[in-house]
Amino acid sequence: MTSLTSAPPASRTSQDRRSRSRLRFWRSPVGQPGWARPALLGIAALAALLYTWNITSSGFAPYYSMAARSMSVSWEAFLFTSLDPSATLTLDKIGGFLWPQALSARIFGFHAWALTLPQCVMGVISVLVMYRLVRRWQGPAAGLLAAGLLTVTPVTASLFGLAMLDASVLMCLVLAADQYQRAVRSARLRSLLLCGLWIGLGFQAKMMEAWVVVPALFVGYVVAAPVRLRRRLGQLALAGTLMFAVSLSWVALMTFTPERDRPYADGSTGNSAAAMVFGYNGFNRLHAGLVDGAAPVSSNGLWGSGGTTRTPPAPGGGAGTDGADGRDQGGTARRPSDEPADRQPGGPAGRQPGAPADRQPGRPANGPADRQPGAPANGPADRPSAAPSGRSSAAPPGARPDGSTRAPATDGSRKGRAAAASAGRQVGREAPSRSSLWLKLLRSPRLTPQIAWLYPLALISLAIGLARHRKASRTHQGRAGHLMWGTWLVTAAAVLSALGNLPHTAYVAVLAPPLAALSAAGTVALWRAHRAAAGGPRAWLLPAVVVTEAAWTIHLASKHTGFAPWLVPLLVTAALVAVLALAPFRTGRAAARGTARRTALVGLLAGCVAMFAAPTTWSLSVLNERYRGSAVDAYAGPGNDTRISTGTRTVRAGDIHVPTTPTPAQSRLLRYVEEHSGSAKYRLSTESWEAAAPYVYAEGTPVLPLAGLHAEPVTLAEYRRLVATGDLRFALVTDAGTKTSKISAWTASACAEVDPRAYGATGRGSEKAPAQTLYRCEPSDATSH
């Protein structure tokens, strides 16, 4: 007799029959019901529709899309996940999530849809693998329901249709769980090693978030693998070694490559990839200062010293300033410095020009020894925006793609800078209380509509599953599955709570697989138990669960009645029909028993509507561009109109537009620079990555950004060496930059200003004076000044 918690075993067939089955992909494999494969293909088609519907208008994310462009034209930038094509500065995180995007852009050209296409494919793969995962554990019906629930989880419906890093890590974690399941059933080391490999690849996509599943997989394998404990631990040690080796491969590459031969690690204060990964993007988000050498970041963690609500990403990080009419296309300028009077123009306080003798020009420095730990680099985000307040594409001063923000320091001290680094907040919101941070996964109006619909059903299913298998053998796969998924869910929820206020809703997507798996398994198990029960108290369990889940769903949906006014009445009606139809009334006549079965089936369908209609409605709303989310963040449905301050006004996150086509004046300037640069390594330098963006977007032009989000990768001595060797001939400088940057001040004093008319712009004294001045530097300028 087939177990209720596992799929029936596959029967033996001839090779010819298997070959014919493979050719007819729409037919279910042997051992699965005939309706399984067609239903799965229908779910996959729905997922593909949701993810690709808005692919041509999915937009570009500031900062990350510039790195994707650089990586698509330079293999060195690809390897080091660099912001610029010449690999001078990395992102403030490992950019492995951009590898598929960069390859797609290299093949299909740099378009929004080319960057989004890999995520769409990852989403469909995740849905298909989710079916296989749960089918092996609870049978094909539960597998189909789990795949469907993952598809209609609102945050994933938006996430996989955008060029975001969370899509890569989510797919890797689902694939890791798939290989773990193979391993825990048979104790095969190969499968366990593949599990570690997928977690390591997930680390390249989103660093330590990929490790959130490690406790679940470790506990599940130690408890349930069908071999002796000593062998289990040995296999886990080998898989863990491989996982750490793959996870730390990029950090090792950056650490053991001489600094003169690799880019500067942004997100750190001392050019340390380890500090950037485990400090700025890791433990320092739980408690500030746990890892030295990391750029400052507000924590708001459970063990942190406070913090603030993070500001959403910059809406216009990729454009720079029009060289002809002064219109800002998304770049930001430095704010006036609040440093002490003895601060020299340019870099951080006390920074001395010069670099180690073995450093090659243009390569990042270790950073000044006398820089205050934790003090942010005096980068472009500290400058006032030159954008007119009426432009929605203008970047808010200090806003960053990771959700954090800068503010001017109140004094030049270490304490003052640390306070300023965490002074940003969301528009119209006060800093949340500690209890609000603890309970945000339950109460946040921004997060709960994206992930929280299945909380009661998943938790009830977990409790029932563990109780049902409490006396099962150690290797029982039903209990092992509940243990693994339950540990994943609890661990991920604890980590998200510990992180404080989440800057992006996409973070909660890591909860989607365990919620979908547990909810699907519980629904199918409850239905089977209901059919087997001959009246009595147990027969009321399924109706009670439907009512509980429907009540929670109605509670969440009632906060957005203007979005779908018909939804709450539908949920109430469906719940009532389900309870009436599933009520355990029985009669002895055969005809009546047949009617009762059909009535119960109607009750099951009504119960599914009551439990799943709301998240499905939210997910289907991504077909409307208004509710699809944005390249900055993933969300579906209403209630996520994130507002971003530009200093004088606020704009919707969904209205963010990153212009990737240079203006006519920028094109003329670029053409002039390329014609007169000769064999220079860099076509020109800019004071910020934002100002460099339009030229990188245009043709993948090798531009030298003098500042990233946190770091200044080039010292004045290195900059002068670049000029002396002829590797750099042109520089774009702003008036504000000459007052705050040593390099800009030196350039303005030593190099010759290019007449704007030479590249088709008007003079500086006219009404359309360029906001940035182009200077030409000769090798002799580096030695004579």
Describe this structure in words.
By secondary structure, the chain is an all-alpha fold. The protein has a three-stranded antiparallel β-sheet with strand order 5-7-6. A two-stranded antiparallel sheet has the order 1-2. Strands 3-4 form a two-stranded parallel sheet. 57% of the residues are buried. The longest helix has 31 residues, at 590-620. α20 (477-498) runs antiparallel to α21, α22 runs antiparallel to α23 and α23 runs antiparallel to α24. Mean pLDDT is 79; it is low at 1-14, 299-429 and 764-770. The protein contains 30 helices and seven strands.
Distance between the termini: 89 Å
- Stretches where pLDDT is under 50 for at least 5 consecutive residues are 1-14, 299-429, 764-770
Radius of gyration: 29 Å
Average residue-wise pLDDT: 79
Major sheet description: 3 strands, antiparallel
**Overall geometry:** elongated
User: Structural class, from secondary structure content?
Assistant: mainly alpha
- Number of helical segments with 4 or more residues: 30
Percent of residues in helices comes to 40-55%
E-strand count: 7
Read across the widest sheet, the strand sequence of neighbours is 5-7-6
